[in-house]
Structure formats: C-alpha cells, structure tokens
Amino acid sequence: MLPKTHDLFSVVCRCSVNFGGMKMAWVGQLDEESQQILPVAVYGNGIDYVDGLIVSADASLPEGLGPTGSALRCNQTIIVNDFSNDPITSIWHEKAKAFGWGSCISIPIQRNQKPFAVLNVYHENINAFDDEAIALLQEMAGDISFALDNFDREAKQHKLALALDHAHKHISQIINLSPAVIYTLKANNNDGFTIDFISENVYKMTGYPKEKWVEHDFWMNHIYAEDMPKVLVAQESLFETGTLNHHYRFNHANGDYIWIEDQVMLIRDDNGKPVEIIGAWLDITERLNAEEKLRINAKVFESSREGILITNGGNEIISVNRAFTTITGYESDDVIGKTPDILISGNTNPIFNDAMWENISRFGYWQGEVASRRKNGELYPQWLSISTIKNIHGKVTQHICIITDISERKVAEERIQFLSNFDPLTNLPNRTLLNDRTTLALASAKRSKSTVALMYLDLDRFKFINESLGPTAGDHVLKELAERLLVSLYPGDTVCRQGGDEFIILLPNTDAEGAAHVAKKLLEIIAQPFSFNGQRIVLTTSIGIAAYPQDGHNFEQLTQSADAALYRAKHEGRNNFQFFARQMHEQANDVLQLENELRNAIEHQEFLLHYQPQYDTKTSKIIGLEALIRWQHPQKGLVSPALFIPIAEESGLITEIGDWVLRTAVQQLAAWQGAGLKAVPVAVNLSVVQFHQDTLYSSVCQILRDTKVNPNMLELELTEGIAMEDSERTLNVLNQLNALGVRLSIDDFGTGYSSLSYLKKFKIDKLKIDQSFVRGLGSHPQDAAIITAIISMAKSLGFKTIAEGVETQEQLNFLIQHECDEIQGYYFSKPLPSEEVAKLLTE
C-alpha cells in the first residue's frame, strides 16, 4: 500500500531537518474556505512555533504577504535570509525571536502542475541557505510532487477497476432486487443435478449464505420433514410435465420455518435429455399468515358477543354479525344497504350528533354512551365505539362500529350509585353524600360570610324497641321518622341517616337561634307516638348542635363538635338539645395558655431536636436524617409537635421556631462532620408561612456559609400546599434553592390536593408518602393503591419516593416490592437525640 499524502509530508520535514541540517520544517496546505494555510506536518526543534500560527494565501492580508503565502500564490521558491529584519516577515518577528529563526525558505510542492502545498524550512543562522541547500530542498519538494502525481495516476486506474466491478455488481443487484430467489441446476454425470447458480438474496430469505448451497443435498436436507413426501411426488411430476408450481415449508437458519412457492421449469436438449432446471422461490409466509389472520378475524367477527356493524365510505351498512342481531333484533337483510340512522332512538341531540362526527373526522375514532332503539321499539343504553379505516390516500373507506348493550350494567351502576350515597332503609342521604353537601354549604357560607348548623340526633333508648318488638318494628319506626323529618324541614336542608338510630341534619344559612328553633320543633315531632301493628310507641331524642364557623371549618370538625354536644345532651338527661359552645370556650382557653407558654419556650430555649434515620430500601444503609422538633415543657414534659405546631402557625411564632430548627439542624450536621463522622443529608420541614418569607433564600445561604456545610447535605421538606401555588415567586424560590444545590421534597404527599401540572414545573427531588397511607397497608386496599400510584407517578417525573411511618415487616415488604426508594419509621428507629445519632453514624 502506498503511503498517504500526509505521511510523505512528514517524511520530507524529517529529511529536511535530519539530513539538511535545518532546525525545523513544516508543510502547510490551503484551506479553501478560510484561505488560510494550515500545518499538516511538522518536525524538528521549535515545532510549537506553528501552534496558533496564522498564514494566509490572500495577498490583501498581512498574513498573506509572508514567504509561505507568496510561495503558494506565486508558485515559486521564496528565501528570507534575515528573518528578524525582513519586512515580509514583520508580523512574525516577535514570535520568531522566541524560537531563534535566522533565515527560512518556502518551496511550493506541486500536484498536477499546480501548487498544492508549501514546504517551510527554518535555520538558526542568517543567510543559511546556499545554492547547495536550496537545490537539495527543491529536489526533495520535486520528489514529493512526483509522488503525488503518481498517487493521482494510480487513483485513476483504481477508479477504472471500480467501474468495471460496479458494472458486474449492478447486474447482480438487479437479480437480487427481485423478491424471488433465482437458481439454476445443471445435470451431472450421476443422473442428478447440482447447483450452478443461486442469487445472493437466498441468504436474506433462508438465513443460509450462498456458499452453503453447493453442499450435497443441502436443499433436500432442509425441507420441513412433514412436507418431504409431497415434495418428492412433485419432483417426479416435473419430469413428466416440464413445469412445476408447488408450496412447501423450508427450515430457516433461525430455527423457524418459512413457506416457499417454488416455480420450476425443466430444460431438455435436442435429444430430449434433461440438461438444466431453472427455478424461482418466493417467500409466501406473510401471505399465508395474512390469509390465516383473515380467517380468524372472520371467526372472531361472527363469534363476538359485541355487535359489530361495518359501513362503506358512504356510511351504508355492508356487514353485521350475529351479536348485532341478538342485541338490536335486526337481521342482516333488514339493514344491509341502509344507514345506521335506523338504530337512532330519536332522542339524540343534533349538537351531540354533530360533535360526535366532528370527532370521528378529526381523530378517526369516537366512543361513548348513546341511547338506541331495538327493532321492537324498545329503548336501551349502549356503549358505542366507532373507528374509521382509510386507504393509502387518506380517504375514509369504512366505518367499524362496536355495539355493547349496557342495560344490565346501567341498572347495576345506578343501584351501586344509590347505595354509595343513600341509606337503603330510609332512602335518606348517607354520611358520604352529607359530607359532599356539607362541603358545598361551607364553601358557600365562606363566600357569603354566613353560618351553617349541623345537628346530631340520637333516639333515646331505641334499642329497647328492637329488643321488645323486634327489628322489623324498629325499621318501621325509622322509616316513618325519616318521613316526618323530611316534611318538617326546608328543601335546602339535608337529613342523613348515619346508621342505627343516629341521624345528622345539615341546616345551611342557619344561625344558633334558628338551629335552636329547629331542634325544639324536632323534639316535638319525634315525641308524637308511632304505631306498629296496633302497638303505640313513644320516643324521645337527644340533639347535639355545632355551628360554622365557630365550632369547625370542615365536615369532620363539625361532626366531632356536634357529637360532643350530643354526648352532653345525653349527660344532661336526654330529650334535650345542647350546643357545643362550652367545649369550644374551654378549648380556646387551653390554646391561649399554650400559646403564651410557647412564647416563653422560645425565650427560655426549651426546644430540642431529635433526628429520625432514613434508610435506602436496596442497601438498608442510612442515607438521611429528618430533624424533628421537640418541646421540653418544664411542667408537662415533652409536648407533641402535633399539639403546638398548629398554634405556632396560627400565632405567627412558626417563623421564629422554623428559623431556629433550620439553623440548629445545619449546625449539628456541621458538628458531626467536624467530628469526622460520615454525615448524611438532614431534612428540615418548612411551613407555608416560613416559605413565604422574602428572606428565606438569603437565610438558607447565610446559614450554609456560616457552617460551611455543602448545600446538597440539606434537604428542605415543603408542605403539599406549596405545590398548589403557581405563582412566579414560588417557582423562582424553588429554582433558586435548586440552583444552590439544596435538595427539595414534598412532605405528606397525597393528603392534599396537589396539581400535577404545577408539580412537574418544580425542581423537586423527592416525594414523601404520608404515614396515614403506610399505616393502612394490609387493611385498606385503597391505601396500597394510592402508594403504588404515587411511586409510579414519581418515577415517571424523575422523583425519588420515601415512605414515613413504617412500623411493620409487612409494610416494609410492600414498599420494597413496589420499588419505594427510601423508608423511615419506628420499624428501624424512633427519632433519636443527636448523641445517639452520632453513635449510628460511627457504626
């Protein structure tokens, strides 16, 4: 193999230095786009000279007036006898001094009689290039030019050879482009035939390379065993008829088989002796599979339990299956050639119909519930799916309609819907429906700044009726009582049977005076005797009343308050009603006292931090700690955060407490690191109030600077309420903290109302699954489903997940099985003082 062009350039540089006694030599080639002459080979002392060297072939530029540019442009040798003083090298004088150039010579290297490159040689002495040196260097440049011309001549010869080879391959390609494998067999001296030619595409079809096919009986040995007898019979017929077209299976190299259509023709000489066989194979596997698929589809079409209707592009029915007849009552002959309009109930809204067809036109598909009419005129609900089939030009050629009779399902759904919202005995709303209505009433009251009353009603000694007269009598009384309650209240009020002899009554836009009036009226109505099978039954009731907003801000709070008031009504002798006011007053005093003590706790430094370890589910190693505040009350001992944190948030003390927790936790982390312990990231909870501080980001930065703690060792846990905010400030703060390197997570995830559209905007690292869901594992399938959904969603968004409150092996196994990344809970460790954490980190 001839050396490459650049290899020749390297050789001439080396020879110029080693044999010519020069200091450094380099060869430059012209870059057509930039017109710069770029070094392609260099050798000798001071080769760093060419680094960053700018030389041009453009005579209008200073860089193009030097010896290299002039030699290339003028196609002549340029000699500079005094490099440091010659005007044409002025812009390189400073650089040349560092390398000690005394003189230089630039000689053009020609290719096909044109300048192709420039050989540049440098000497440390002035006037170093005498006639002998010039002649030697020009001779070397000429040798390179001669070699380059030889390269071009050999390239032309190689190109001609390639053209001839291309012509040969072109003919082969024409054969191989055919999907058929072409082959010829020549008669041999043993009254048999051997392979004479087979096209290259035989490998693509069978998986066996062309060379394999020359082996003895290769074709015969790879015919599918079950098809061998019929192939042998077909071969015998070839010699009788001269032509043959037959199908058989052939064992592919990948272990499967393919179906081959083999078309064969026998050639005889003038004496009738067989001399050649010409054949062509076609792989018909896909065609046969498609035919089988069509057969199966036809069977599915007729066997389906869903009705199937097919129309042409003009929306005329061209085919229906048996299930269609079973559902609609229409036989095939009744509908073929007609439009599906004969099935319309007549109750369809034209706007709905137009919207359906617009959706089909835009997306090629529609599904939904519609009312339809059977042949006997009966209306029934059906689930209808319509799909379009288009040709290669995008024109609709068919519509396929799948019809499902959902009459029975609708009845079941309605029953389920009723049972999920109503009491089956009295037909009154149940607690679930009451919850919904209360939520709406409270939202309305909040907007209008009005009041809402909630009553708990419990029949006194009702169990004696069931015990003495039987449950049938009790049910009769409850149903009659439900009717009395409904008649006595306004249409906007809601009466709910919670269960047994307990009822809850919702009174929107009702104040304390109105609620008392209603309660008094109910006591009178219930006191009126009931009758069952001639038996006179007298009842009394006890009523507890709670009012919004003073007794609660949501359904749960109001029901708890009303239940407490009911308890007091029972305690006061039954057959009366009581408000929740006294308990609320007592609670307010407790809260006020605790708030004052909380302020003292800040002043007297009564707070301390415990740390609960967090573990990796795969390695079981500690990968983090959560800082949890504790209040060491001087009289009450440790006070639960669940008790004082809400008070701190409401009173505004949470800001000062939160700042203390953040700084203390980071300082503790710095202390562990300073003690040489293998510290792990520490998570600190941020309240909504704390997050909304304008100084949050600067405070975090200052604490990290003061403690010299790496930002990625701090994790800030945000409340789920922050995830609902789409404000520019929220996004900016989260982006700032993320850019700083601080880790971010959302605490108690799943307990609020997170918006996924907002959540995906935030640069969050982790979602923390609330312990209420973990606690329900094994007993509440809904909790398991929620946890699984949170983990799946987190992975899709690129977040990690951590489950808190893990207390059992069963919970741990579930979380590991569903690939929760991290866990935290009493199963591994309770929250620990910093001294005990230090021992863990040492281990």
Task: Briefly say what this structure is.
This protein is α+β, with helices and mostly antiparallel strands and 843 residues long.
Description:
43% of the residues lie in helices and 26% in strands. The protein is α+β, with helices and mostly antiparallel strands and 843 residues long. β13 and β14 (379-390) form a beta hairpin.
Features:
843 residues, alpha+beta, five-stranded antiparallel beta sheet, 28 helices, 31 strands, flat
Q: Helical stretch count? A: 28
Largest sheet: 8 strands, mixed, barrel
User: What is the averaged pLDDT score?
Assistant: 87
Give Rg in angstroms: 47 Å
Low-confidence stretches: none
Widest sheet, order of strands: 23-24-26-27-28-29-30-31
Class based on secondary structure composition and strand pairing: alpha+beta
How is this fold's topology laid out?
Blueprint: H1 5-18, E1 24-31, E2 36-44, H2 67-74, E3 78-80, H3 93-99, E4 103-111, E5 114-123, H4 131-177, E6 181-187, E7 193-198, H5 202-206, H6 218-221, H7 228-241, E8 243-251, E9 257-268, E10 274-283, H8 285-303, E11 307-312, E12 317-320, H9 322-328, H10 332-335, H11 350-363, E13 365-373, E14 379-390, E15 396-405, H12 407-421, H13 431-448, E16 452-459, H14 463-469, H15 471-488, E17 494-499, E18 502-508, H16 512-527, E19 530-532, E20 535-537, E21 541-548, H17 555-571, E22 577-579, H18 581-603, E23 607-616, E24 622-633, E25 637-639, H19 641-651, H20 654-674, E26 682-686, H21 688-691, H22 696-707, E27 714-718, H23 728-740, E28 743-749, H24 756-759, E29 766-769, H25 771-775, H26 781-797, E30 800-804, H27 809-817, E31 822-824, H28 834-842
Parallel strand pairs: 21-22, 24-26, 26-27, 27-28, 28-29, 29-30, 30-31
Antiparallel strand pairs: 1-2, 1-5, 3-4, 4-5, 6-7, 6-10, 8-9, 9-10, 11-12, 11-15, 13-14, 14-15, 16-18, 16-21, 17-18, 19-20, 23-24, 23-31, 24-25
